[in-house]
Each structure stands twice: as C-alpha cells, then as structure tokens.
Amino acid sequence: MMFRRGFILFLPRLVGLLVVACCSMSIVYMLVCTPKGDNQQLALPRVHSPTVKEGYEAILQEREEQHRNYIISLKKQIAQLKAELQGRTEQFKNMQNQYPNSLDIQLDHSKPEKAQANLLAFLRSQVDKAEVHSGVKLSTEYAAVPFESFTLQKVYQLETGLTRHPEEKPVRKDKRDELMEVIELAVGSLNKPDGVSKAKPRVYTASDFVEGIYRTEKNKGTLYELTFKGDAKHQFKKIVLFRPFGPVMKVKNENINMADTLINVIVPLAKRASKFRQFMQNFREMGIQQDGRIHLTVVYFGKEQMNEVKSILENTSKSANFKNFTFIQLNEEFSRGKGLDVGARFWKGNNVVLFFCDVDIYFTAEFLNSCRLNTQPGKKVFYPVLFSQYNPSIIYGHHDSIPSLEQQLIIKKETGFWRDFGFGMTCQYRSDFINIGGFDLDIKGWGGEDVHLYRKYLHSNLMVIRTPVRGLFHLWHEKQCLDELTPEQYKMCMQSKAMNEASHGQLGMLVFKQEIETHLHRQKLSSKKT
C-alpha cells in the first residue's frame, strides 16, 4: 500500500519531467536544424518578442516557406534534367538516323574534325555494347564467349587449331605483337603519374606482369584484363583494356564473271584402279554434268593397272562426250610432287586455274566455284581445309549396313574432322605456280611436298586464302606407312593414320569395349534374377 501511494504521488512529477525533456529536445532540434538565410537565421522567441505561441507560429510559417521554395527549386532542377535528357535522346536519334548501322558511317576527309568525332563516338559505343562493364543474358551455355589466358611466355587456348596443343608459345607474329602491345600499354598506364601522391612512384616493368585473359566479341572488339604484382605480397594491380573494332567499311564492289574460267584438275596416280573408278563417278557428276568448265589431267606412275585406269577414263569420255582430259605416263617411282609438277607444266593453253587433287577426294560443283572465286593471278591462292571422313566401319558399326557414300558425307563431329594439318588440295593459277618455282622434286613418296609449296606462298606477296569448305571431302581409306619413308615422313604418316580412324569418344568405346560388354552382361543377369 505504501509503495502504491508513493508511486501515485510521484507520477505527476514524472509526467512534468518528461514534458520538460520533450520541450528541451524540441528547442535543441530547432536550433540545430533550422536552415540559415544569407544574412540571418531563425531564432527562438525572446523575452521581449510576442508571445511564445505567436513566435512558434512565425517560425513554422517561415520554415514552411523555405521548404516550399526548396521544392520549387528541386522541380526546376528535375525539369532541366528532363530537358537535357530529351535533348540527348534527340541527339542520339539523329545519330541513329544519320548512321543507322556501321556500314553507313562515312569518314568525310574534307572535314577531319567531324570525321574524328564520329569515329570516336562509334568506338565509345562499341565499349558500351560489349560485355565489359556488366554481363549480358545468354540463351544457352554455348553462347558464352570464352576467354583465353596468357603469360609473357605462353598462351593457353581452347581452340587449339593446327598446333593441336592446349598451350603454345605465341608463334604467330600477329598474336605475339598484339599481346606485347597490350602489356606495354598497361605498363605505361601503371607508370603514368596520378598527380595525387607525393611519394616517389614505383616503376612497373613487363616482369611485374603475372597473367592476363582476353576474348574477342566478333562485332565489337577485344577485351583484355591484365594482372600485375602490387606493392605487397598479396596485393595486385589490375588493368582492363578494350580494343574496339571500327565501323565496317566498303573496300570493293565488283562484278565477277567466271563463265569462261577453266579448272584443270590434276591427279597423280599409281595403281588404285578401283579408287579411280569411284573418283571418276564423282568427277562425271559434279565436274562434267553440273559444272562443265573443267579439264582433267591424270599423271600415272608405272604400268601396273595402267590399262584399267585408261579404260575407265576412255569409257567416261565416250559416255559423257567428254574430251577435255590428258593422260601422262611416267616410268618411275611414285612421287606426288613430281606428278603434280609435271601435270601443271604440261598445260600449253592460256593461264588456267590448277586444282591439285587426289584420287580419294570427293568434291561438289559448289566447291569448284569456290576454287575460282578464291584465286586471282598474281594476287590470291586458295588453300581450302577439307573435311576428312572417319572409318565408316567404326562410325556405322552398330548399324545394320553402311549407308551410301553420298549419305556418309555429313559434316558432324561423329563422322569426321577438319583436316587443318593438310595442304595438299589447293587451287592456284598456273602462272603463280610457275613463278613460285613449283614443287620440291627432291621429296619422294608420301608427304612433305605440299607443305614446302605452301610455305613458298606464305613467304611471297600473294594472299593465301585458308578456310574450311563444305564441298570438299577426304574419303576414308586404310593408310599404309611404308618402311622406305624417312623417320619424319613415317611419323607424319602414322599421325595421319591415327587421326583418320575415329573420334576420341569412338576410339575410347573401342578401348573399353570388353569392360562395357561385361557391364551389360551383369545387368542382363541381374534383370533375370528379379
């Protein structure tokens, strides 16, 4: 009871103290938060001012007026920003209308400043469009553009290409020069004074480079991210660079008439009459019937099966009314380079496109047009990358029967591979072949002569067109690597033989065939028990 009575007596005092505290806090708040004018500030009512109530009302009215003015100011700023944004939008639309795509960007050399501004604007837009500052949504896992990583000595790449190595020294001059230029530019950027720090800046060199990654978006540019050693053990410096691609520019617009462009197909041969019969079926359909602007030169070594080969050629000539062929017989050991060289020099007519071919090649009429379009006397030679067929008995071993040849010619990873290490099938004008010096006739037997000719063209001023083509196939045949070959030739032959049989996965299935059969047998027994 005493506690309750004391509490009741203390309660009014507690309420009074809380009221005084609240008033004190309000006064402090107004002193601190009341905005100041240019030459004055709001103050609490003084002793000689009107009543306290009237003073507070005046203060509140003035604060309300200031807030109203502040809101009006904000609205004006928002309106100005909207107007500026609208202006920028109109400017961007005008640029789009003026340059709807990169093909329409013209660099007016009469107005260099405008041309430079247009080009810089385009290059900056390339950075904005590329995946540099943020990611983009991709439809599938295959749509991602992978990076390749590199150090001062090596490049680690996913697309191995001709070298077949997952890591390589940047032997290609263009790649080596590109990466060294990027590293030097990054070092220069790191050594550029920032104008803030007064301490003596550290001097970076290429030896501070740790690693980098880069990738190219085909229509935008190349992104580089380079990492350098920092000032302490676990500190690093990262430099991000971007090489934007410029606008697409029209270089040439020309009409090409290939109606009278003849192709001389030169085939060196020794024995292999059954393969030649298959080749002539393809030649008749694609070369004679569909294309019609073609000549065939067969350079035959020895006399064994020669009459059979000549009979096949003559029968095709009679049945197809085809007279544009030449048969040359050499009584010497087979040499592919010698056969092609003799066939090319035997031609006595006007300058002609030479197609160096083998008897186990299948080509389409579309390829013959590609052969014409990618060669130009004194300018271009064509080195197509053909699609090499795997062993059909392995590919279709689980089928009831092997499909026809035409049905086998499908470009898929299960059926074959791009033969990017081969340079034997090539199209070039006879004049270029003669001027470059022809084949190295000291090379005997299989392999090597085509690479030597290819290198001659690479060392010349002629442009070498190297690209995979969909209309040129190497048909599978069992490869024999003879003991007479040099060690280097024998190694090349065996590598080619291994590559020709089947894909990595298919060869793996053959290696583990017994293990797979044992597993299937156990499953079969298990299902019978249940």
TrEMBL record:
Listed A to Z, the keywords are: Coiled coil, Glycoprotein, Golgi apparatus, Membrane, Metal-binding, Signal-anchor, Transferase, Transmembrane, Transmembrane helix
Q: What is this protein called?
A: Hexosyltransferase
Q: Which GO biological process annotations does it have?
A: chondroitin sulfate proteoglycan biosynthetic process
The reply to whether Ribosomal protein figures as a keyword in the UniProt entry is no
| Membrane topology category | Single-pass type II membrane protein
Q: What Enzyme Commission number(s) appear in the record?
A: 2.4.1.-
Where does the record place a coiled coil?
A: 64-98
Tell me which PANTHER family the record gives.
CHONDROITIN SULFATE N-ACETYLGALACTOSAMINYLTRANSFERASE 1 (PTHR12369:SF19), CHONDROITIN SYNTHASE (PTHR12369)
Family membership noted in the UniProt record? Belongs to the chondroitin N-acetylgalactosaminyltransferase family.
TM region positions: 7-32
- Any one cellular component term from GO for this entry? Golgi cisterna membrane
Superkingdom classification of source: Eukaryota
Extract one GO molecular function annotation from the record: glucuronylgalactosylproteoglycan 4-beta-N-acetylgalactosaminyltransferase activity
InterPro entries to which the protein is assigned, alphabetical: Chond_GalNAc, CS_glycosyltransferase, Nucleotide-diphossugar_trans
Catalytic activities: 3-O-(beta-D-GlcA-(1->3)-beta-D-Gal-(1->3)-beta-D-Gal-(1->4)-beta-D-Xyl)-L-seryl-[protein] + UDP-N-acetyl-alpha-D-galactosamine = 3-O-(beta-D-GalNAc-(1->4)-beta-D-GlcA-(1->3)-beta-D-Gal-(1->3)-beta-D-Gal-(1->4)-beta-D-Xyl)-L-seryl-[protein] + UDP + H(+)
Instruction: Kindly report the protein's main subcellular placement as a broad class.
Output: Golgi
What is its subcellular localisation?
Golgi apparatus, Golgi stack membrane
Transmembrane in keyword set? yes
> Per the UniProt entry, what species is this protein from, by scientific name?
Leiothrix lutea
